[in-house]
Amino acid sequence: MQLYLPIADIPVNVFLILAMGMAVGFVSGMFGIGGGFLLTPLLIFIGISPAVAVASVSTHIAASSLSGALSYWRKRSIDLTLALVLLGGSIVGTILGVLLFTYLRTLGQLDLVIALSYVVLLGGVGTAMFYEGLRAIARARRGGNPTLRRPGSHSWVHGLPLKMRFKRSKIYLSVIPVNVIGLLIGFIGAIMGVGGSFILIPALIYVLRVPTSTVIGTSMALTLVTMVIATVLHAVTNHLVDAVLALILMIGGVTGAQFGARAGLRIRGEHLRLLLGLLILAVGVRFAVEIAIRPDDLYTVRDAGGAG
Amino acid sequence: MMPHLRYAVAGLTLSLCGLFGADDACAERLIVSVSNHRVTVTPNYSGEELVLFGSVERDDTAAAFRGNYDLVVTVSGPRTDMVTRRKERRFGIWINADSRQFLNVPSYLAISSNRPLDLVASPDVRRRQQLGLDNVLLTQRIGTDYADVVASDPFRSAFVRLRTEHGLYREATSAVTFLTPTLFRTGIPLPAEVPIGTYDVDIKLFANGALATQTQTAFEVVKVGFEQFIANTARHHGLAYGLATAMMALMTGWIASVVFRRD
Predict the structure, then answer these.
(1) How distant is the Cα of A284 from the closest Cα of chain B, in angstroms?
(2) Which residue from B46, B94, B263 is facing A74, i.e. has the nearest CB?
(3) Do B234 and B215 belong to one domain?
(4) Of the N and C termini of chain B, which has fewer Cβ atoms inside 10 Å?
């Protein structure tokens, strides 16, 4: 069934978009991530312009992270104080990100920056996660204890001033690194059309030593707010949010996420991390190949901003 | 700038017409009609083909002309500014390096004729009448200069080629069919990615390689109903649209968490 998208200005197959939403929703439910890093490239691949894809995926992530955040809220595993401090930095980051997005669009380098960010971030995070997953599996084979949280090993991050107590996570640390991490996530999210949880979760665990019990719920709460802000900002500055596209995606996404979450429960944690690492790495490599090999067509034509 | 230029062209062709015709009036007159003057883009729109019908009316002074007429139909969509960019290899990756801005160019352009354009008229006439994709005026801005360039210019040919690949530019030299020596028809295929706006249709009749007469008509492509509402709201009420979209996302997320609640 073909449907004409009012903002993207192209007709798409509703079932294809719905299936894409479901598939990405499945993955995101399984790993507890937003899935934007998969969905944005998929949309670009079927011919939706990168700018519209990034803007509309923000809306989709807002929906899927709300349904996720609500269930974590019921399990009391969201650290609201931590989420609010992260949010302070994240709002500034999101605004900066949307401004840079608009500027790069006028320069004609938006596609390149999106591709490069995917290569660097996904390549880096994917490799780290894959390696970490392998080590965890090796450790489990040897029968050793997985030591995810090492409360004694404080880094320089924990020596910074302006400390405050985050009760639910049972940690006591400076607001500076928390704000900086929030800022980076907001910035990256607005430019790449991703929630950024695949960077946020490792950052919270390894840099801030937030316990795993609150990390995913808190990350989802933050993602929810940043993506709502990103949606509104993209709508105001670039007029590129396609509500119809976003609606189809989110209906598929929230459905897929339920099945994904059930499947995720049956897989062991270190295997899950290994799989997620591989998946992230694969998307990063895909983008690297795209900008490294000679494109089929050296020329591209675009509307010169403003019109259309 | 463009409207003045077009009046100049129209004035020129009228005088040509006067020269060609025996006395005060033209010998031929064109009567045309498009099958649909208002194409609506609805949710299930995925391209459409319009049909242009017409006939050549001749008065007595034209009776002397025994040959066949040639007809060139140029459909040009709403004008817009475009950028064509060329990628180059820098630091091991392919990035957009050089670019040209095309000013006020048709977003859709279809040129149809009944036989190859080089048989219809001489190169000089083709250039003056802007017949064919090689001769149509595509103004570029190069630094501070405004000019059209030769058809072989790499940016111009890449621009035309890419637009053609998307079904937005087209040159079909056998698309006009003469059903009788004076009755003709041609199709105007509109792609799925059709630009919204007013389309001008220029119909030029040639006899013995010279312009005999010409006429214009137009049609419009509009979004209606829901599509128009969404597009308009997004453009003119960005904040309200953004808030509404965000609300929709929150509603969907909330409904999902209620429907699929397991605890």
Answers:
(1) 15
(2) B263
(3) no
(4) C
Residues of chain A contacting residue B230, judged by C-beta atoms under 8 Å apart: 6-7, 243-244
Nearest CA in chain A to B223: A6
Residues in chain A closer than 8 A to B42 (CB atoms): 4
Interchain contact, B235 vs A239, CB within 8 Å = yes
Q: Which domain holds residue A213?
A: 2-292
pLDDT tens digits, chain B, 263 residues: what are they? 444 444 444 333 343 444 444 444 457 888 899 888 888 887 777 788 899 999 888 776 655 566 778 899 999 999 988 888 888 888 878 887 888 888 888 999 999 999 898 888 888 888 888 888 888 888 888 777 777 777 778 888 898 999 898 889 999 988 899 998 889 999 999 888 888 889 999 999 988 888 888 899 999 988 887 777 888 888 888 888 889 989 998 998 888 888 876 65
* Within-domain flag for A306: no
Host domain of residue B24? 2-220
Q: Are residues B62 and B16 in the same domain?
A: yes
Flag whether A266 is in a domain.
Answer: yes
Q: Which helix (H) or strand (E) holds A173?
A: strand A171-174
| pTM (2 d.p.) | 0.73
- Say how many domains are in chain B: 2
A222 CB neighbour count, 10 Å cutoff: 31
CA nearest to B252 within chain A:
A63
Same domain, B185 and B246: no
Of A1, A254, A295, the CB nearest to B252: A254
Does B228 lie in the same domain as B169?
Answer: no
Q: Is A271 on the interface with B (CB under 8 A)?
A: no
Separation in Å, CA of B75 to nearest CA in chain A = 19
